[in-house]
Amino acid sequence: MDFSSKLLEQAVLEMSQLPGIGKRTALRLVLHLLKQPEMQTLQLTDALSNLRTQIKLCKNCHNISDTDLCEICANPTRVKEIVCVVEDIRDVMAIENTGQYRGLYHVLGGKISPMDGIGPSQLKIKSLIDKVREGEIEEIIFALSSTLEGDTTNFYIFKQLEGLEIKTSTIARGISVGDELEYADEVTLGRSIANRVPFESSLKS
Ligand SMILES: [Zn+2]
């Protein structure tokens, strides 16, 4: 691609770093921004820049948050004894949308995936085990997607919890294998949390 402007070229290059955005699409987006009022582009760059500099991870559940303790963890009406283990904030949002869950979350930040070089130490697993050891949690609900990586991660955590006084369950599989949580509809997802089953019995099938 030949650019008549270095500034344009730089903007297109940066935009095309985004997933699913090729050079052509990047050029279209950048030209679109140029046609919009200047304020609109500045609001976009401000939002992105604030996102990077001000966003935090909740110190309790590792969810993305504006404050040290996220709104869910800080809410006194939430049931602190039940913790739902999820991959990332998209799963938290999907489960929150069901309106069926009143416990807290623990966001792992991914799934164990040797193919992608992601091992247990790169995920927030140790802090979960530590929380269980402290004895304030009564039940852990595994709500990772039922992919090979999700199952591997569940099982790894389950093994780490052996010998600790804790009830473990997994969301009922109304969600078919391979479906990602965020794509499950709210009714199905809500029902699968309400009808969760003991984790051990999910291993036999
Ligand atoms: Zn939190």
TrEMBL record:
Q: Which Pfam families match?
A: RecR_C (PF21175), RecR_HhH (PF21176), RecR_ZnF (PF02132), Toprim_4 (PF13662)
CDD domains, alphabetically? TOPRIM_recR
Give, as residue ranges, the zinc fingers classified C4-type: 58-73
| Entries under InterPro entries matching the protein | DNA_Rcmb_RecR (IPR000093), Rcmb_RecR (IPR023627), Rcmb_RecR_Znf (IPR015967), TOPRIM_dom (IPR006171), TOPRIM_RecR (IPR034137)
Q: Where is the Toprim domain?
A: 81-176
Q: Which PROSITE patterns match?
A: TOPRIM
What keywords are assigned to this protein?
DNA damage, DNA recombination, DNA repair, Metal-binding, Zinc, Zinc-finger
Say which family it is in.
Belongs to the RecR family.
> PANTHER family given for it?
RECOMBINATION PROTEIN RECR
The task this protein performs is described as: May play a role in DNA repair. It seems to be involved in an RecBC-independent recombinational process of DNA repair. It may act with RecF and RecO.
Query: What is the designated name of this protein?
Result: Recombination protein RecR
Q: Which organism is it from?
A: Gillisia lutea
Q: What is the lineage of its organism?
A: Bacteria, Pseudomonadati, Bacteroidota, Flavobacteriia, Flavobacteriales
Q: What gene, per UniProt, encodes this protein?
A: recR
